[in-house]
Amino acid sequence: MGLRNRLLRGLIVAKISYQTIFGAIILIFGILLLFRTTGIYDTGQLLRYIPSLFVLLGIYALWKTVFPT
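The structure assignment produced for this chain is given below.
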């Protein structure tokens, strides 16, 4: 099936790599720390959820390993 047919049927799904997700999480974490240290925004409540993001990243990595596409 050609690219045009897949586009017409809406079957193209963007594939996001593990490295991209990990990089985005690190970038967000760095921005939150920057905001906190410069006093721009109090991120104390947001930084409480950072460990959850790493748990979700680990689950995603396991999922991609068990069910490769």
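Interim note for the steering committee: The helical segments are 3-9, 18-38, 44-47, 50-66. The longest helix spans residues 18-38.
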